[in-house]
Design brief:
single chain; three-stranded antiparallel beta sheet; five-stranded antiparallel beta sheet; Ribosomal Protein S8, Chain: A, domain 1; globular; alpha+beta
């Protein structure tokens, strides 16, 4: 991302491909680097097969996160999502807490629908949003896999790929104008009439930003189960 940002400042925009890598961690971290540099950042990542094609039962595509960071004057606008209906992290939490996952999200290793998190971790998960999520996962697999010379369907932990894009807004409009217009749009979104029972409309990344600020102020609570797991390490 640092290379992409630096070259976008010279050329208006840049695209960087990465191959032969492993899991990149939190995709939002990298696009936040771009946002802090007054640059629009996009990141596409592929990983080991976890998602079925829409209508299929066998894992073929990665959870393939997509992240976007956009500069503004107010709350950081960070969009970071996996293309899976449920993430591996959510499955691990369900296993830890011995809870079932919702119906319709996952298959076991035999291709049968399951609400057992451990079986789902050994099997596969659906794309989020049906054919729309499948389309995003497939396109991401091509952009962050095929295009950058990473593995088309990578084995666990080996030759994952990233496609990183940085755009300098000043190539199109003055930075102050861009940020002001983004702020206006965010304000209109948050002032939209709310459904019954909805206290506030949040923009992408706002809830996580608030959690981060609270954690910085008050620390992070670790439950006993997690503490035991960490101590075993």
């Amino acid at each position: 991302m640092e290379l992409a940002i630096e070259r976008s400042k010279r050329n208006g925009a840049s695209i960087v491909g990465v191959y032969n890598t492993s899991h990149c961690g939190m995709a939002g971290y990298y696009v936040d680097m771009a946002r802090k540099a007054d640059t629009i950042g996009l990141l596409f990542a592929d990983c080991l097969p976890r998602i079925t094609p829409e209508g299929g039962t066998e894992a073929l595509l990665g959870t393939n996160p997509i992240a976007v960071g956009i500069p503004s004057n107010t709350v950081p606008l960070l969009f970071d999502m996996a293309t899976a209906a449920i993430t591996n992290g959510d499955l691990l939490v369900a296993i830890r807490d011995d809870t079932a996952i919702p119906e319709g999200l996952a298959f076991d290793s035999e291709g049968e629908p399951t609400t057992d998190a451990d079986a789902a971790l050994k099997g596969s998960v659906r794309p989020f949003g049906g054919h729309k999520g499948f389309g995003l996962a497939l396109v991401t697999q091509i952009l962050a896999g095929v295009l950058v010379n990473a593995a088309t369907i990578p084995p666990p932990g080996t030759n994952y790929g990233l496609l990183i894009v940085a755009i300098d807004p000043t190539s199109f409009v003055p930075l102050a104008q861009f940020k002001t217009e983004v702020d206006k749009l965010v304000t209109r979104v948050k002032e939209n009439p709310r459904e019954s029972g909805v206290a506030e409309i949040l923009i992408p990344g706002e809830r996580a930003y608030r959690q981060r600020e609270a954690h910085l102020a008050d620390g992070i609570h670790l439950d006993e189960t997690l503490m035991r797991q960490l101590n075993r390490l």
